[in-house]
Amino acid sequence: MICISCNNEHNEKFCPNCGEKNGVKKITLPSIMEDTITSITDMDKGFLFNLKSLLLDPKRITSDYINGKRRGILNPVSFLILSITFYIVLITFFKMPKPAGDEEAILGTTYGKFGYVIGKFITIYLKFFWILSIIPLATSIQLIFKKYNFIENLAISSFIMGLAILASGIGYLFFRIPIIFDPILYVVILWLIYKVFRQPVNRSEAFILAASVLFLFILHLALVMAVIGIFGS
């Protein structure tokens, strides 16, 4: 077998010269589609593996990723982006009906205009807003738990936000609540923080600390929305 990368002849699974995997196929449209679908649907790796692991043992998948045991684990930022994309597809196909009443009257009030500006901004920049939300979440985790460095907490936050947004998307099908006000989002965030950082002892303390992280995160979001409302109005 001739290595596709360095032309070294060998019979190993991986090239001893450059490490390239043996038998790598030429890129075709079917191969791209196959790899894309596999990365999402394979329960042993990729998106569904992340989903299964976060539901069953979030502490293990996050610690494994941070410690370098990343086989089968989809990159947390990619997982987050796919989750947000899933949410956007859902709200596009199942649009929330406009509230009955006089829209002009609502916009004529200070709070109505303030809320409209915030809602419009989040709707337009939904994907970027929630990707960037991992920064205040990681900051809050860093301040409360002080267990990992900031970059590692960003990875953990990406896992957490990815699953929380997926859960919120499923909840949207039934309750039609905008994600920023969806209690499902915040309950899942709280649950995951608790599961990831809890220790065998002092579980009540871990829950209080997780609740403190959630409070700081919501406070950060409220400040961001206030800034958006002030400068957008």
Order of helices and strands: HHHHHHHHHHH
Tally of separate helices? 11
Approximately what portion of the residues adopt beta-strand conformation? under 5%
Largest sheet: none
- Overall body shape: globular
| Low-confidence region ranges | none
**Residue-averaged pLDDT:** 80
Query: What's the gyration radius in Å?
Result: 22 Å
Give the helix/strand class: mainly alpha
N-to-C CA distance: 65 Å
Total strand segments? 0
- Tell me roughly what share of residues is in helical segments: 55-70%
Protein architecture, described:
This protein is mainly α and 233 residues long. The protein is 69% helix and 0% strand. Helix 2 (47-56) crosses helix 3, helix 3 packs across helix 10 (183-197) and helix 8 packs across helix 9. It is globular, with a radius of gyration of 22 Å. The chain has helices spanning 29-41, 47-56, 58-66, 76-93, 103-108, 110-124, 126-132, 134-145, 150-175, 183-197, 203-232. The longest helix has 30 residues, at 203-232. It contains 11 helices and no strands.
